[in-house]
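Why show two proteins at once? Because comparison is the fastest way to build intuition. When a single record is shown, students tend to memorize it. When two are placed side by side, the eye starts asking what differs. So, the first record is below.
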Amino acid sequence: MTTKMRSEIAEQPAALRATLDSLLPRIGEVRAVGERTRQLLFIARGTSDNAAVYGRYLVESHAGRLSALAAPSIATTYRRKLDLDGVLAVAISQSGRTEEIVETLAWAKDCGAAAVAVTNGGPDSPLAQAADVALCTEAGEEKAVPATKTYTTQLAALAVLALGLGADVDQDDLRRVPDAVEKLLGEPGDLDAVVEGLLDKPGVVVSGRGLAFSTALETALKLKEACYLHAMGLSYADLLHGPIAVVDADTPALLVAAENSPTLPGTVALAERVVAAGAAAYTIGGGEGLARAGTAALNGPDLPEWVAPMGLIVPGQLLTEALARRLGVDPDAPRGLNKVTQTD
């Protein structure tokens, strides 16, 4: 039986095309609100927070805007007012109904920020209503609890945001993403080998750097949510500062990189180090160089680094769904989770 999660993974090319068709004509609106600001503050939790990490790296590396990830507790628990004059607050929520995120965006506006919402909840959602500009994604209803198509369409919306902020990139690259994702769905790489390699393992370290860091975090989250693995998502720079000690025969590494990325040589070197230490290094993306350095490889997209995370996550989603089924876990409804999470 095909799971809802697997069906929704397959819907991503269409969801991405619909989202880009809807949002690319609105670059001018983003430009207008962005002209009043100097830096960005991303507001999110969970999977949306991993999308925010992509947004932060993208905006800083290609639009030259200082960016930060918000601590919503400053607004909702400590209730501390900050000077956010000149800040563009970007709140990200799949449902647009997570009260903490809506409240934090309202707080940011009260502190002087301009406000953008990224949500699949539609223009009538509380988050969209609270924003100056709402970038509503077109993923359609997502029934499986683990986010897949809502996550990749969030990345697409953040890429449109970056274009509106003057990113030095080619807009045509973004139009190529749905086809690249479609290709990955048919050619994910050695999925069975990676599933077999993780079947009897209690945990895995998932690592990437730069724009691929968001993919490492999101892949680790999916493996925790749906497979109950102790999956640790880390930048490889942080991994080398000490946590690499946990990588051994019982704790393999899953390493992520885009082709032609400045972080690729370091990722290849890390894979070689892991294998030399007697542990498995499974890889996602990075071309032939990274594949040769690892134990088994999942394919990456044929895309420039700035849009590659929209494709790099797809093999991780497929891995999560397949591994969950092999472990006897229903990936559509992992224990203890709901589609919309409310925090105090």
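Second record. Ask yourself what differs from the first in the token line.
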Amino acid sequence: MLDVRRLRLLRELAHRGTIAAVAEALAFSPSAVSQQLSVLEREAGVPLLERTGRRVALTPAGRNLVRHAEAVLERLELAGSELADARQGLAGSLRIGTFPSAARAIVPGALTVLAREHPGLEPMVAEMDPARVGDALRAGELDVALVHDYDFVPAPQEPGLATEPLFSEAMYLASPAGARPAGDDPVGRWREHPWIMGTPGTLCRTMAARACEAAGFTPRVRHQVDEFATVLALVAAGQGVALVPRLGAPEQLAGVTLTRLGMCRRTRTAFRSGAAAHPAVAAFTAALRTALPPDLDEGPPARALAP
């Protein structure tokens, strides 16, 4: 009988590519991961991995088993959802991941709704960049999360996960009040100015860099800041320009001009495949919709980076 926990390790290896990456993501030692995969090979009765020096690749049988593992893990999530639905009332912990602007503007209202309608549920919120959410969900560190993608940064296909659209919001270029260089392109005319961007590796940083590339220039990054309130304070101090979403600039700030752009950020709820019907996940999603600010809109259609 194949062990589902070892199947999960094999699925993670197919996604991450190295035993070290699997070990880091799931808080195991590399030797423990390697040992468990060796046991899985003995259970399967056929080679699942090809080892060349320090590199490991899946054999055709290994890749085929990963397909079955995805189906098995999804069915287990469905079974868990049905069992939870059969209980009387929601209770226990609900581990929620969110990015900072949603944590400030939406999540508190959603938690208020949850406390009123499901007092036995204990939500536990953790802030993290959406780029880390997939790993945390698959590792069981989160039950549900808010994730986003931008124009110029399409959402990657995450194995073992499913998402549900929640809302879209407009993007703005934040510039010091009174500064307006010549040019019709709302991004391109700032090519000679310093920029304030997120830290490398974040979706926000990638989005801003690609928006500048689409406007025909490479930005000169002066400050690297992730928190939008700090970004806007630096803009007001004349330290550069930045791209911010609607939730990152909830009110007009003195010293800052916001110019709406023809691009948007889209937010979705994310969860493990098969968990959409879990009553706690469904309750949180419903509470989020109740807590959305009334002036959020669908924004302009998605726009891809030109080749």
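One difference worth noting in the second protein: Strands lie at 49-52, 55-58, 92-98, 121-127, 144-150, 161-176, 194-197, 220-224, 242-245, 256-272.
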